[in-house]
Amino acid sequence: MEPNRLKEHLKIRPLEVADFGRGYLTLLSQLTKVGDVSKEAFQKQFEKMRSSGSYYVTVIEDCNTNKVVGTATLFTEYKMVHNARKRGRVEDVVVDDEYRGQKLGNVLIETLKKLAVHEDCYKLTLDCNDEMIAWYNRFGFIVEPGRSNFLTIRLES
Ligand code: 16G
């Protein structure tokens, strides 16, 4: 589905600092623990992400309710390997419970894939809960043979 196939009242666009007030963090809390992020902390982090030039935080807003109802982020990591190109990572994909089944996730992922090609990424990766693997398979993400792992150390205190 192309981004322009979204229903009229749904708009896909980059994250704005005003999305703090449009429920962006509440939406993320449907994915994982957000913690206590003040408006000031949000603004600071937003500015760091924006000025780095490496983050493409994409949201879908319902213009009828002025709420952010879907989001996905492309993070691009500079590499020396592969002719000093970039690796893209898909992060923080979430669609509001009440908007599931409208293919908003498809629009977000297809948009990030195009963006990653445009940004000259040589590959695009993600990690997710095992039960989501089949969903991501639909977009071409696969578990590469011999690499069916994702290693983590939790550094949170
Ligand atoms: C999933 C997300 C990742 C997110 C993490 C949060 C996708 C494709 N993956 O792995 O982006 O940061 O969950 O889980 O959306 P955590 O709180 O356990 O780190």
Mean pLDDT: 96
End-to-end separation: 42 Å
Tell me how many strands there are: 5
Bound ions, cofactors and other small molecules, one mention each:
2-acetamido-2-deoxy-6-O-phosphono-alpha-D-glucopyranose
- Work out the radius of gyration: 16 Å
Number of continuous helical runs: 5
The dominant shape is globular
Q: Strand percentage, roughly? A: 25-35%
**Helix and strand succession?**
EHHEEHEHEH
How are the strands ordered across the major sheet?
Answer: 1-2-3-4-5
The computed structural class is alpha+beta
Q: In terms of per-residue confidence, which ranges show pLDDT below 50 for 5 or more consecutive residues?
A: none
Question: What do these coordinates show?
Answer:
With 157 residues, this protein is α+β, with helices and mostly antiparallel strands. The chain has helices at 24-28, 39-52, 81-84, 104-118, 133-137, and strands at residues 10-14, 55-62, 67-78, 86-95, 121-125. A hairpin with a 4-residue loop joins strand 2 (55-62) and strand 3. The protein starts with 9 loop residues before the first strand and ends in a 20-residue tail after the last helix. 19% of the residues are buried. The model has no long low-confidence stretch (mean pLDDT 96). The structure holds 2-acetamido-2-deoxy-6-O-phosphono-alpha-D-glucopyranose. Residues 31-33, 90-93, 126-128 line the site of 2-acetamido-2-deoxy-6-O-phosphono-alpha-D-glucopyranose. The site of 2-acetamido-2-deoxy-6-O-phosphono-alpha-D-glucopyranose has 10 residues, from strand 4.
